[in-house]
Amino acid sequence: MKIISTATVVENVKEMCIRANHYLSEDMNLALNKAVDTEKSELGKKILNQLQENLEIADKEQIPICQDTGMAVFFIEVGQDLHIEGGLLTDAINEGVRQGYTEGYLRKSVVGDPIERINTKDNTPAIIHYDLVAGDSLKITLAPKGFGSENMSRIFMLKPADGIEGVKEAILTAVKEAGPNACPPMVVGVGIGGTFEKSALMAKKALTREFSERQNIPWVKELEDEMLEKINKLGIGPGGLGGTTTALAVNINTYATHIAGLPVAVNICCHVNRHITRKL
Amino acid sequence: MEQKIQTPITSEITSKLHSGDYCYISGEIYVARDAAHKRMNEALNKGEELPIPIENCTIYYMGPSPARDGRPIGSAGPTTASRMDKYAPRLLDLGLKAMIGKGKRTPEVIEAIKRNNGVYFAAVGGAGALLSKCIKSSEVICYDDLGAEAIRKLYVEDFPVIVVVDSQGNNLYETAIKEFNSL
């Protein structure tokens, strides 16, 4: 049985928080470069160039890409043959967030109570989702999520009769309503099926998928392509100021559902779609 | 059109700005976001004075990340303006002239912009590292306990913004999208 100490988890989470907020993954960079070449609006092109310049400055001068360094969202896969030593895994993850956000000069954006709203001053607690999997590894994915885009996310409890057309309309409605508020060009995460909460979780997790990694269900893959094309025809454009680049990708996850329902969740992310994964 | 603007932004300046203009702002501007606006509104309700000089004032909706040693500020991009919509008309009627943020505004805010010869600028959302380079100094003026939401006075040089809603109420978010919508 493999043993991992909580100290190792703390150290890794801390480094991941800092790294994720200063560098975007390669697929995001490639998508932005491609958008600069295809964008038809002059102002849109200028904004995309600024976003590229922004990434260079963030990297070179160690300034967070975006001032909203987000709420720290984790997807954790725990191998069932793994033993964690030295305390609770959840506590270790939160300690890593505490250290990373403090030592990394990242913004502390979390309030401890949604109504009383007193800042916890260390960006904890994190949002942590656990999956128990085969093997003896610990796979940590961190996706710091800003709320400009998070606030524009939606859930639709459609009827089975609404079908695929209803799904398409729901996605377009969410993107249209988000418009300039979600800092386009955006990445659109969609969860179809499951239950109310399962669809939301799938939509959030879809944002962490590499663009090159495609779905293997034919209709899902087709829907991703079609929705990306349709979203880019809305005209919202970079910064919401008009143009042909509204989204860089549409990532869809699906799951079984109930005979009476068709949940569709749309979780929108801005172009600062941060995600980083480590396997320990 | 591209133009350079010096604060304080007056009616004389806003009357020459048009929706879609690209501007570079230099001078003093103030930073306030959700919690600071709530407190300013409560102060007004109690008959107290505002902590910032509101006449011809420019407010930037922003909450920076902490500054590293030797730097005036951390990452400093715009936050969603609609969260301040509840408070903006009252401040505009008191003399606030310009707002910098990102995202849509309510019809009430656009009416108040027209009524007061105001202007709403957008800065590029998510470009906080780039925009921080235009901020030369930053000083917390009040509400220090709010952390990232405290009211700050900034000195900016050639801070890039786009006129979204001009003093006539023209709205770039509506006009520009129509131009590229092909659905």
UniProtKB/TrEMBL annotation, chain A:
<protein>
    <submittedName>
        <fullName>Fumarate hydratase</fullName>
        <ecNumber>4.2.1.2</ecNumber>
    </submittedName>
</protein>
<keyword id="KW-0456">Lyase</keyword>
<dbReference type="InterPro" id="IPR051208">
    <property type="entry name" value="Class-I_Fumarase/Tartrate_DH"/>
</dbReference>
<keyword id="KW-0411">Iron-sulfur</keyword>
<dbReference type="InterPro" id="IPR004646">
    <property type="entry name" value="Fe-S_hydro-lyase_TtdA-typ_cat"/>
</dbReference>
<dbReference type="GO" id="GO:0051539">
    <property type="term" value="F:4 iron, 4 sulfur cluster binding"/>
</dbReference>
<keyword id="KW-0004">4Fe-4S</keyword>
<dbReference type="Pfam" id="PF05681">
    <property type="entry name" value="Fumerase"/>
</dbReference>
<keyword id="KW-0408">Iron</keyword>
<dbReference type="GO" id="GO:0004333">
    <property type="term" value="F:fumarate hydratase activity"/>
</dbReference>
<comment type="similarity">
    <text>Belongs to the class-I fumarase family.</text>
</comment>
<dbReference type="GO" id="GO:0046872">
    <property type="term" value="F:metal ion binding"/>
</dbReference>
<feature type="domain" description="Fe-S hydro-lyase tartrate dehydratase alpha-type catalytic">
    <location>
        <begin position="11"/>
        <end position="277"/>
    </location>
</feature>
<keyword id="KW-0479">Metal-binding</keyword>
Automatic annotation (TrEMBL), chain B:
<dbReference type="InterPro" id="IPR036660">
    <property type="entry name" value="Fe-S_hydroAse_TtdB_cat_sf"/>
</dbReference>
<feature type="domain" description="Fe-S hydro-lyase tartrate dehydratase beta-type catalytic">
    <location>
        <begin position="5"/>
        <end position="175"/>
    </location>
</feature>
<dbReference type="Pfam" id="PF05683">
    <property type="entry name" value="Fumerase_C"/>
</dbReference>
<dbReference type="GO" id="GO:0016836">
    <property type="term" value="F:hydro-lyase activity"/>
</dbReference>
<comment type="similarity">
    <text>Belongs to the class-I fumarase family.</text>
</comment>
<keyword id="KW-0456">Lyase</keyword>
<protein>
    <submittedName>
        <fullName>Fe-S-containing hydro-lyase</fullName>
    </submittedName>
</protein>
<dbReference type="InterPro" id="IPR004647">
    <property type="entry name" value="Fe-S_hydro-lyase_TtdB-typ_cat"/>
</dbReference>
